[in-house]
Amino acid sequence: TSSAAAGKPKTLSPAKRRSFDAFDRGQSIDAVAESGGLKARTVADHLAEWIEARKPEDISAWVEPAEYDRIATAVKEVGTDFLRPIFDRLNGEVPYEQIKLVVAHFRARA
Prior knowledge:
Oligomer: single chain
Helix content: 55-70%
Shape: globular
Order of helices and strands: HHHHHH
Structural class: mainly alpha
Number of strands: 0
Radius of gyration: 14 Å
């Protein structure tokens, strides 16, 4: 595979391709949602896939470091198999989208 294709899923819809390109430039979920006419939740799903594909060192452009650390602690305690135990461990105080991004980052770095 060429280096341009590295880290991209083989079947990338036009919307997902636009999202991936925007994330490559560090754009926020809200900015990508607004420019692409997508729901933030859909864009967050795209970002989770982007994180697993691109394996970035840092995702602080999308998850505040303190929030990341809080989620990471819960992930280390309950694992990455399911989001609900992480959500429950965090007393329902952290949105699933944020949890999903940190879990994707853990998987990408595994």
